[in-house]
Amino acid sequence: MSKLDSKVPAGPLAEKWSNHKDHMNLVSPNNRDKIDIIVVGTGLAGGSAAATLAEQGYNVKAFCYQDSPRRAHSIAAQGGINAAKNYQGDGDSVYRLFYDTIKGGDYRSREANVYRLAEVSASIIDQCVAQGVPFGREYGGQLDNRSFGGVQVKRTFYAKGQTGQQLLLGAYSAMSRQIGKGRIKMYNRHEMLDLVLVDGKARGIIARNLVTGEIERHSAHAVVIASGGYGNVYFLSTNAMGSNTSAAWKVHKKGAYFANPCYVQIHPTCIPVHGVAQSKLTLMSESLRNSGRIWVPKNIEDAVAIREGKLKAESIAPENRDYYLERRYPAFGNLVPRDVASRAAKERCDAGYGIENNDTQEGVYLDFSTEIQKKGKEAAIEKNIHNPTEQQIYDLGKAWIEEKYGNLFVMYEKITADNPYVTPMKIYPAVHYTMGGVWVDYNLQSTIPGCFVIGEANFSDHGANRLGASALMQGLADGYFVLPYTIADYLAADIRTGEISTDSPAFEAAEKEIQDKVNFFMTNKGTHSVDYFHKKLGHIMWNKVGMGRTPEGLQEAILEIEAVKKEFWADVKVLGDPMGMNMELEKAFRVADFLELGQLMAKDALAREESCGGHFRWDHATPEGEAERDDENFKYVAIWEYQGDDINQETMHKEDLIYENIEVKTRSYK
């Protein structure tokens, strides 16, 4: 059997998942307590998986580097979660969600996985409502929906601007129930540093206790990686500063193939960079594009005056504003997909129309004045206010905006000191999500038997560009409704295996390798901090492996990262004590992995001689500046096999993408 057997079931697309479930092996309830499962990461994917597997009766060991699963980065998701419920009666369906996701990913995702995602989406909402997640509701009590980019229906369920937090609390409450029953053993403030293979199967991990500094061995019959994406390879991103790629990268170096590393999502709605000392970026929810209009000054002299502080945005008349998304993409307007909106913002700023007073002039406006007026007039009619004053219209419109997005407006004002009800928000694209990740088959199993990868850590569902509000959908789909079935099919053969010992040579060798690396970092006589190297890497990645890529820039990036990597190992300085809390030591391990991954991202981007989704090559663009795909030569998943520390030893395999139920065509939102 080929290592790259995707295990996609035969039969009609709409019946694949149900037929597959009907014929998988099961572990009977009385045998499940004989099975141990490690779950690395306790965000929405890992938390939902841990809770569900423990509820089924397995012994679960859950690991997170935070002090509580409640602090996983899933908490930062703001705008919503997609599901094909069609509550609005506007034409949505499972097929429509499937189609929008495939198209949004620029026809670079696996058809069967995406259909399954759409199919189980409705069950996620039912599950979360049962857990008490406070989704927004209409006046009559029915769950409300928003639109997100890349769609023409309302299918996004939300909890104000705190959807990720509320969903995570739902998963955490389910976890807490199982922790109380003793079925989940929780390892807070622990970080996985290596995967342990015994006889070719994933049988455990090496973890570091981030409080005591101890290196620990943990065994299991299967290991689930749910550790999120690798956006922090760019240093500045919307990810939490602790978000990293170490768990996924370690399984790659142990034999799990890595797919499409160059597919990185740039989110168009981020507060612009404001200084060289900044450590992370802040996202403003895509849901704001439902009500906000994006623009730059139509006249370049106005843009210059704004940057110099001589003119205020609200002083520019509507006829002197360039609502460039509405102009270029009339069918979708401000709700084009993220990659399209991001490149359009970059194009306007590169042309000199940016409004932020920084070195790069990177910034555009997200303006709510039109929506405030519109909703204010509607509210006045509803309240039977005849001939309302301008102030009444403004107050009523502001109240409507405040009810929908109030916490986001408060957050923006606290960060920028601008009142976004009056002064339009300043936004600019930033690294947000990674569509690439560990390659998995239809069962979410990597090329290492017993190593499963779920959520953002795998590659499977989003192709070259993720539609907004689909990350939460994938995480919960994998954890609640897919993995609990597919992992049982694998574990059915392990009910007589017994407990996995941690005294084997494999565990001993893996622990020694980590301890040797700790000793190296703590004794290396370098002169530069870990952040020094991380920032150098991020600068290369953003400028040469960012929104716009060229063959020359990518080749330069590979060589420049190699130089930074050599300098890192020769000159990094890690202060503190190895035994105890040492955040510099934590970062050293993570940045070492980022340096290797960054090179692979550039190599993958160089090999993919086309533009698709978030991967945009200037040498493969239409005359209008849109992405130019090459379906004849690049309609495949690029899958990399690790064969040594030299980037030239990474070998690429291909999984051809076959679309039997959807027409592949040029993506257009005009």
TrEMBL record:
Name of the protein in question: succinate dehydrogenase
- GO terms for biological process? anaerobic respiration
* Cofactor(s) named in the record: FAD
The answer on whether this UniProt entry bears the keyword Glycoprotein reads no
NCBIfam families for this protein: PRK07573.1, sdhA_Bsu
Q: Where in the cell is it found?
A: Cell membrane
Q: Which residues form the Fumarate reductase/succinate dehydrogenase flavoprotein-like C-terminal domain?
A: 534-669
Q: What is its EC number?
A: 1.3.5.1
Q: Which Pfam families match?
A: FAD_binding_2, Succ_DH_flav_C
- Reaction(s) the record says it catalyses: a quinone + succinate = fumarate + a quinol
Q: Which SUPFAM superfamilies match?
A: FAD/NAD(P)-binding domain (SSF51905), Succinate dehydrogenase/fumarate reductase flavoprotein C-terminal domain (SSF46977), Succinate dehydrogenase/fumarate reductase flavoprotein, catalytic domain (SSF56425)
Tell me which residues this entry annotates as catalytic.
R338 (proton acceptor)
